[in-house]
Write a structure and sequence with these properties.
The chain is α+β, with helices and mostly antiparallel strands and about 350 residues long. It has 9 helices and 22 strands. It folds into 3 domains: about 140 residues, Probable tRNA modification gtpase trme, domain 1 (Gyrase A, domain 2); about 70 residues, 2-Layer Sandwich (Alpha-Beta Plaits), CATH 3.30.70.1400; about 80 residues, Beta Barrel (Elongation Factor Tu (Ef-tu), domain 3), CATH 2.40.30. The chain is globular, with a radius of gyration of 20 Å.
Length: about 350
């Protein structure tokens, strides 16, 4: 049965085209995907991300649990509200899911996991907790909703609607969070733009959605969310990595701490099997559109596109790709599109940031 977020009725009132997304009934767009994309780059937009699952991890062994569960090191989290991007790995070193951990204190954290993998993730966490016999609990917070407001004017619009949050959120550095009453505000996002991700009681979500819309914030669907995240070079679970892919081959080595003495699930596998491929960007030089699973032909062997699209900000097609070691940024490669081999340039896997081209 398809699940619905608390904002489902609001999406329909705003004229959304609804689609099944990982078992959730979600808005693809509200009219024009391209206009929604540009709204976020040039002004601001809001996304319903309530299908994501916030999980509160608490107890005397909460930190010990996360130290063993994820590949990044929660010892790095010293200041209340600090966030950390990482992944849970399986014993073979594949990515069970990517996630964000927010630090409250040594005995309390909030973990946000992906919607389509939530049940699998929770089962994995339960199995590990039982295996390690630690004194901790984790509670999925389905009583909460999440709205992301992104774009150069996003923060100003949020403060217009939630003025009581400005004093504490205005000084937030990237990847930090703060709680104001029952509202949890984080300076995180999935677009490469400034903004907030707001978590609040589900019962208050529709009123906030409407207030933001009244303040001029445009609703944004999954279509623009995907082109925005791809332009920003951000991975999508299930496309750019999954349980068969090492984070070292998915451009996520920076989220893995292999130096600290602590052990974590998948560490032994990563040490035994170092990086096998590079995760790089492609800019199409010929006419066409890059798509997932297209073959990339290089002088060092073949690779594969994991995510590809037409980038509205650049007016060119771009992609993220897993390529052989030895391929260099600036190289020209060939991409098989239908029966043709089209030229593409290898670039750093971040195409647009804060509205500006990075290539």
């Amino acid at each position: 049965m398809t699940q619905k977020t608390v904002l489902n009725d609001a999406h329909r009132r705003f004229g959304a085209k609804m689609v099944d997304f990982g078992g959730w009934d979600m808005p693809l767009h509200y009219g024009s995907q391209i206009e929604e994309h540009h709204a976020v780059r040039r002004d601001c937009g809001m996304f319903d991300v309530s299908h994501m699952c916030a999980v509160d991890v608490a107890g005397p062994d909460a930190k010990a649990f996360l130290l063993r569960l994820i590949a990044n090191n929660v010892d790095k989290l010293k200041l209340p509200g600090k966030a950390l991007y990482s992944a849970m790995l399986n014993k073979s070193g594949g990515v069970v899911d990517d996630l964000i951990v927010y630090y409250v204190d040594e005995a309390q954290y909030r973990v946000v996991i992906n919607a389509g993998t939530a049940e699998k993730d929770l089962a994995w966490m339960a199995e590990r907790l039982a295996e390690w016999k630690l004194e901790a609990v984790f509670i999925p917070r389905r009583d909460l909703a999440m709205i992301a407001v992104q774009g150069p004017n996003a923060k100003a619009r949020v403060w217009q609607v939630l003025p009581e949050t400005r004093v504490v959120s205005e000084a937030l550095k990237p990847f930090f969070s703060v709680t104001v009453g029952d509202v949890f505000i984080a300076s995180t996002g999935y677009t490469g733009e400034d903004g907030f991700e707001i978590t609040l009681p589900a019962s208050k979500a529709e009123a906030l959605w409407q207030a933001l819309a009244d303040a001029g914030v445009k609703p944004i669907g999954l279509g623009a969310r995907d082109t925005l995240r791809l332009e920003a070079g951000m991975n999508l679970y299930g496309q750019d990595m999954d349980e068969t892919v090492s984070p070292l081959d998915a451009g996520l080595a920076w989220t893995v701490d292999l130096v600290a003495a602590r052990d974590f699930v998948g560490k032994a596998a990563l040490l035994a099997n170092p990086q096998q491929a590079q995760f790089l960007g492609l800019l199409l030089l010929d006419r066409g559109v890059l798509r997932a699973h297209q073959k990339v032909i290089t002088s060092k062997g073949n690779g594969e596109i994991t995510s590809g699209t037409f980038a509205p900000t650049l007016l060119q097609s771009v992609a993220l790709a897993r390529l052989p070691l030895g391929v260099n940024i600036g190289d020209t490669v060939k991409v098989e599109i239908r029966d043709k081999e089209l030229s593409a340039r290898v670039v750093k896997p971040c195409f647009v940031r804060n509205g500006k081209a990075m290539i």
